[in-house]
Amino acid sequence: MIEIDRLTKRYGATLVVEDVSFNVEEGTLTVVVGTSGAGKSTLLRMINRLVEPSAGRVLIDGEDTRTIPEDELRHRIGYVIQGYGLFPHRNVADNIATVPRLLRWDRKRIAQRVEELLDLFQLDPAEFAHKFPHELSGGQQQRVGVARALAARPALLLMDEPFGALDAVIRSKAQDDLIAIQRRLGATIVLVTHDMNEAFHLGDRIAVMDQARLLQYATPAELLMRPADDFVERLVGTVERPFRLLSLTPVREALEAGHAEGEPIAASESLHDALSRLLWTGRKALPVADSSGAIIGRVSVDKILQHGRPLP
Ligand SMILES: Nc1ncnc2c1ncn2[C@@H]1O[C@H](COP(=O)(O)OP(=O)(O)OP(=O)(O)O)[C@@H](O)[C@H]1O
């Protein structure tokens, strides 16, 4: 677990991060979201001590980061920034091998790890290992940047606007890839963005910051249903709120007894998917199947719309 404990940063008289605390569970993805200048990047950089906190501390599995030598800390915490920071004169394989080399892994182990990561990021080693960063597209550079940060299996991966330079279509694909890789590796990630859609798409938990302070730290569903204040509510975005809520709720939670005609929908799919299917087919209800394919009930438009309403 990563414990962020009362972190504060002052530049002169200005408080840039004020008394921020939250815990990040192992194997989860936490998104820090907020307006420009809220202090998100500074908070992230205090976690790996690129910025020295004015007060407060960070614990990694109970160990205070101040007791860990800085170079060791950089090896234990991966860091990805917008623009990826790839070394322009090193090829893809050498870029990915950076930290394992510093840690003096043997050649064979490094070569295996590089190949494994290239495969994982869907970059064919035969084609990409020897290319240089300028020969790659933005999306490919982004993947190499993340692969490099993950190479030595860090305890924590920090990502600052990692998709900021990608256009909308590639960005969405890159977000899906990150989720798949995070699940597969069980990596613990803290990611900074100013994009609330990205936060909802990626975050197991979301930390909302404004003017140096943490306003709320909660799951996406909690943010939607119980925003801590007006600012959070506005940021979450009232217009898309019902749809976001439906995207986060599985069909199983609106299951009703009874029969319905048509192709069944899986209980694990979202109510958003169910509603799209219902609107598309013009039906009032769909049969619902469990993971074995057995029909366990139905889901109806009326019931879904009840779920889209915020709690009183
Ligand atoms: N080294 C510094 N010296 C003085 N002020 C700084 C320094 N670094 C950051 N700041 C100020 O701290 C505030 C927060 O900056 P930070 O980059 O953490 O915000 P952010 O939420 O990441 O914003 P953005 O999304 O625009 O990058 C800003 O007002 C910035 O000008």
TrEMBL record:
Residues 2-236 form the ABC transporter domain. GO terms for molecular function: ATP binding; ATP hydrolysis activity. It comes from the Bacteria. GO terms for biological process: quaternary ammonium group transport. The keyword Transmembrane helix does not apply. Keywords: ATP-binding, Nucleotide-binding, Transport. The keyword tRNA processing does not apply. InterPro entries: AAA+_ATPase (IPR003593), ABC_transporter-like_ATP-bd (IPR003439), ABC_transporter-like_CS (IPR017871), CBS_dom_sf (IPR046342), P-loop_NTPase (IPR027417). Belongs to the ABC transporter superfamily. This is ATP-binding cassette domain-containing protein. It comes from Microvirga makkahensis.
